[in-house]
What does this fold into?
Amino acid sequence: MCIVFYVCLEGKEPPSTMSNESEPTNPLDPFETMTTLWEANLKNWKSMRDTSLDSWSKTMIDTVNSDEYSRTTGQWLDTYLTLSQPFRRIIDLMMTQVLTGLNIPMRSDVTSLAERLTNIETRLDDQDAKLDDILSAIKAFSIPKPTTSKTTTNNSAKVKGAR
It folds into this structure.
């Protein structure tokens, strides 16, 4: 591959190096002939690859969407879960022993603690609401009632009569 640098003078654009026309090849140049053959083989290989991928893709989509595949996968999953259950119990038992020996909390311990904290938080929220109700009731009883205007008018009448 050859990179050519052009200097633009007087606003002239450099000639385009990308053209659709094939340049004449020199049959005596072995490297140019090898490059041409390599590019042709690469194009053929890419075409075969794309065709193969499309074919596999269609085949796999048809296979996965079939009822037989669903039934077979379901049977395999049932068998796997049935066979793995004893091993899972053994692993859980071993993990419990190891975590207990290392004094590290297990998942059940953390879950239990989270449930307890949630219960405490709920109780605190309930007590906060009750205290708000009690506070508003106390405020309602402790606000002094305004005096009626009759006592004010009687006093002003006495003052006028005293003159």
The longest helix spans residues 107-142. The CA atoms of residues 64 and 132 lie 61 Å apart. Residues 1-10 have pLDDT under 50 and may be disordered. Helices lie at 30-64, 67-101, 107-142, 149-162.
